[in-house]
């Protein structure tokens, strides 16, 4: 993590102030799903995970729709804010952040942090009991000074526990920094992006603790951290290595999309002010025009980009979104199908989008195709809660109410609303033959216990 903040011992974070501590449960975070950005971050992280001895298939990267520069780990997941990508001018900067978080994951810091928190609690409780005993003895003897000493012991006990926990966190931060440098070296990537990210955060005063006492902070002092990185990073033979132009373009296209969805045309101009005629800037402008409610102008802009770069799947995806919003569902489905065909990551999101467009068209004769297409998407990406919503609508239009309610239950489950998931699963189960596959699927939802910690 790059700055302060631990969410009740459950998440290791960068630039996460204590006031915004998060439980790191997907249901409580503004998680965003996007095939383009997910594919990009996956390509960034996979070589690093392998270098760390971790299986990419067992680690999930989750995008959080927040413009703060932030990333953290929780369980087997790495959460990264879209703001981290937006503020990273090069792929290497985002890669450096991911390398650091993978250092936490590979080092098992989260599990050990839980142990340290329990230890800190024990210290605080013991000190509190000792202080209470001294205070009681002072009160019984009529000695105000002894009673005051007892109160001081109770207070200092909490401070000792807090300082011990913060010292542990600072050690783990340094360890994660060193691990990140190792992974970048193994994958023959520059550590300069990691260094640039720290320098940028220090300029914004996001790494500094509230107190000037460096021991009362959960992270090493910024200047100490950057000083170490400057020395170690410049020893890498890849320090001056630049990102490939094609990767830089993908990175900037993702930044343009994030800018458009979070700040419209104004944010796009602020992000690409030096080159508003670039492909990423015009991509962001097309999206912003669409979001502003001008489908004709947006379509003209995205069509111009497709003419210039017909093999870019994300231009076709945006074209599908524009057409679907304009009520041209069949054309939207064709655009999404084109995007899915060109997508090198084979994202289930795009596969499902084809069927979702057909559902919005409302034609009964297309619902069978819509169901099949959405199901293909869910096979690739079973966590797509939005796809389940459209699947439920498609089943509803065919009159299969049991399947519609079961799909609704699945959607609620994947979205983190477990109570509603169980309600709809129970309703669906009544419409299926006992012990049939659909009945058992509903039963799994009904009987699965949810760990809400």
TrEMBL record:
UniProt xrefs under PROSITE patterns: TPR (PS50005)
Q: Name one GO molecular function term.
A: metal ion binding
InterPro entries recorded for this chain? Mito/Outer_Membr_Metalloprot, Peptidase_M48, TPR-like_helical_dom_sf, TPR_rpt
GO terms (BP aspect):
proteolysis involved in protein catabolic process
Q: Which cofactor does it need?
A: Zn(2+)
TPR repeat locations:
313-346
Protein's UniProt keywords contain Electron transport: no
What residue range is the signal peptide? 1-21
UniProt KW keywords? Hydrolase, Metal-binding, Metalloprotease, Protease, Signal, TPR repeat, Zinc
Q: Spell out the Pfam families in the cross-references.
A: Peptidase_M48, TPR_16
GO CC annotation: membrane
User: What PANTHER family does the annotation carry?
Assistant: METALLOENDOPEPTIDASE OMA1, METALLOENDOPEPTIDASE OMA1, MITOCHONDRIAL
* Protein name per the record: M48 family peptidase
Q: Which organism is it from?
A: Aureimonas flava
Q: What is the lineage of its organism?
A: Bacteria, Pseudomonadati, Pseudomonadota, Alphaproteobacteria, Hyphomicrobiales
């Amino acid at each position: 993590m790059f700055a302060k903040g631990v969410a009740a011992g459950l998440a290791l974070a960068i630039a996460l102030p204590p006031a915004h501590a998060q439980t790191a449960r997907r249901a409580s975070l503004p998680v965003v799903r996007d095939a383009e950005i997910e594919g990009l971050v996956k390509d960034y992280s996979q070589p690093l995970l392998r270098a760390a001895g971790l299986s990419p298939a067992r680690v999930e990267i989750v995008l959080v729709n927040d413009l703060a520069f932030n990333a953290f780990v929780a369980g087997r997941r790495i959460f990264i804010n879209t703001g981290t990508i937006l503020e990273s001018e090069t792929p290497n900067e985002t890669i450096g952040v991911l390398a650091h978080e993978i250092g936490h994951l590979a080092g098992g810091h989260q599990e050990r942090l839980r142990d340290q928190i329990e230890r800190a609690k024990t210290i605080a409780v013991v000190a509190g009991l000792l202080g209470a005993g001294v205070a009681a003895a002072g009160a019984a003897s009529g000695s105000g000074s002894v009673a005051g000493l007892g109160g001081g012991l109770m207070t200092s006990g909490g401070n000792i526990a807090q300082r011990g926990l913060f010292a542990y966190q600072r050690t783990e931060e340094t360890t994660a920094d060193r691990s990140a440098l190792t992974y970048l070296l193994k994958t023959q990537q520059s550590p300069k992006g990691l260094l640039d990210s720290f320098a940028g955060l220090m300029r914004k005063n996001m790494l500094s603790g509230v107190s000037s006492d460096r021991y009362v902070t959960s992270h090493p002092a910024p200047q100490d951290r950057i000083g170490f990185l400057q020395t170690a990073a410049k020893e890498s033979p890849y320090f001056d290595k630049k990102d490939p132009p094609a990767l830089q373009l993908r990175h900037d296209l993702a930044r343009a999309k994030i800018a458009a969805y979070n700040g419209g045309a104004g944010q796009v101009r602020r992000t690409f002010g030096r080159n508003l005629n670039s492909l990423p800037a015009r991509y962001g402008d097309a999206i912003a025009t669409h979001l502003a409610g001008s489908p004709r102008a947006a379509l003209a802009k995205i069509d111009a980009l497709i003419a210039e770069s017909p093999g870019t799947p994300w231009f076709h995806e945006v074209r599908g979104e524009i057409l679907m919003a304009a009520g041209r569902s069949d054309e939207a489905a064709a655009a999404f199908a084109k995007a899915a065909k060109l997508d090198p990551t084979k994202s289930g999101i795009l596969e499902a989008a084809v069927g979702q467009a057909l559902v919005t068209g409302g034609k009964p004769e297309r619902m069978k195709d819509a169901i099949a297409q959405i199901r293909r998407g869910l096979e690739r990406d079973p966590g797509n809660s939005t796809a389940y919503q459209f699947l439920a609508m498609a089943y509803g239009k065919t009159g299969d109410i049991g399947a519609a309610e079961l799909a609704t239950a699945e959607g609620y489950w994947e979205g983190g609303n477990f109570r509603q998931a169980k309600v709809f699963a129970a309703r669906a189960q009544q419409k299926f033959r006992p012990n049939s596959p659909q009945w058992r699927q509903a039963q799994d939802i009904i009987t699965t216990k949810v760990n809400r910690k």
